[in-house]
Amino acid sequence: MARIRGPYDLEWGNNTLADVSEIDIDWDQDEEEYSTVQHNRFVVDGGILVRVTLTLLRSDIPALAAVLPQYYVPENGTLSTGESVDSSLGAIDVVPNCDDEIRNDLDITSCANPGQTMRLVNARTRISGVDNPDKLRTVMVEFIGEAEGGTGVVQWFMQNSIS
Amino acid sequence: MNIAQSFANYLETITGSTLGQTLFIGQAPSSNKAPDDLWWIITSGGTPILDAVTGEMVKQYSIEVYHRSRNYKSVYDLQQDLEITLNCSRCVELQDFEIVSIRATAFPIDSDLDDEDRKIALIQVDLTAYEDCIDIS
Questions:
Q1: Does residue B137 lie in a domain region?
Q2: What is the band of B137 on the pLDDT scale with cuts at 50, 70, 90?
Q3: Looking at the predicted structure, is the pLDDT value of residue A117 above 80?
Q4: Does any domain span residue B115?
Q5: I need a labelling partner for A11 at 20 to 30 A (CA). Which of A5, A91, A122, B114 fits?
Q6: Averaged over B107-131, what is the pLDDT?
């Protein structure tokens, strides 16, 4: 048995996520509680929703484009307000639109050789907040695991041990 | 590039000094041939004040900037100019370091122990920098 510790390697799809100051995991499971006339109580488990919020220290356009591709506008693209994007870095244009959701597994791999990976299956992303402590802007990005029916919500396995 | 070299390069641009001639790292040269008007810096720190879960850090450095000259007013004026420049600099860029904040404090002018006709000014610079923990050379 071993303790699982960081620093962690984070990957979402083919993107390696660096410069993350905080990982916050919110685990929520539906349940129904029943009582019998014999005074027994039962809890029936329901669906599980797991959200992982990453606080990004590096919140420049390429970093945001990697985790929020649905908002990315490339060079020569057009912003929702009509302006053309002239920078090679492109731009981020946060337009609420559920049609362009991109889903990938979020892998959080611990520090070891090999490490152990915690996978949030089929996670989509959205911004959950922006902060500016000590003049360093941080962006909180929420990964919402929405596994398809019959598949796991969260998985743990040894790094590179599944195929 | 380490913090001393990187800050010295920045100091050259705002003081008009030249590294190795009128600006030095670590100490003022002891040679009598060294000019009276000199700058030198001493750095310390590298204390992590924020650890990212992915391994990167925000670090705190302390840099002491000394300036000496025989002219008290010149020493004082340059010290005050540098303090204002550093504190009012909106977006300092140092090579290999991403500066989060920079703060400067001016201390009283003192006499040079090696030559009492010479005056020395000290400015302490507290510098917060973001680092990727990549190899520096």
A1: no
A2: very low
A3: yes
A4: yes
A5: A91
A6: 89
CA dist., res. A161 & res. A144, Å (int): 24
DSSP assignment of chain A equals: -----SSPEEEETTEEE--EEEEEEEEEEEEEEEE-TTS-EEEEEEEEEEEEEEEES--SHHHHHHH-GGGEE-TT-B-TTSPBP-STT-EE-----GGG---EEEEEE-SSSS-EEEEEEEEEEEEEEEE-GGG--EEEEEEEE-PPTTS-SEEEEETT---
With a cut of 0.85, is the ipTM above it? Answer: no
**Chain A neighbors of B103, CB-CB under 8 A:** none
Å between B132 CA and nearest CA of chain A? 8
Q: Tell me the pLDDT tens digit for each residue of A62-104.
A: 999 999 999 999 999 999 999 999 999 999 999 987 677 899 9
Mean pLDDT over A35-52 rounds to 93
Q: What is the count of structural domains for chain A?
A: 1
Name residues whose C-beta falls within 8 Å of residue B137's C-beta, 6 or more positions apart in sequence.
Answer: B1
Kindly report the backbone phi and psi dihedral angles of residue B97, in degrees, each rounded to the nearest multiple of 5, phi listed first: -135, 135
Query: Considering the domain boundaries, does residue A52 fall inside one?
Result: yes
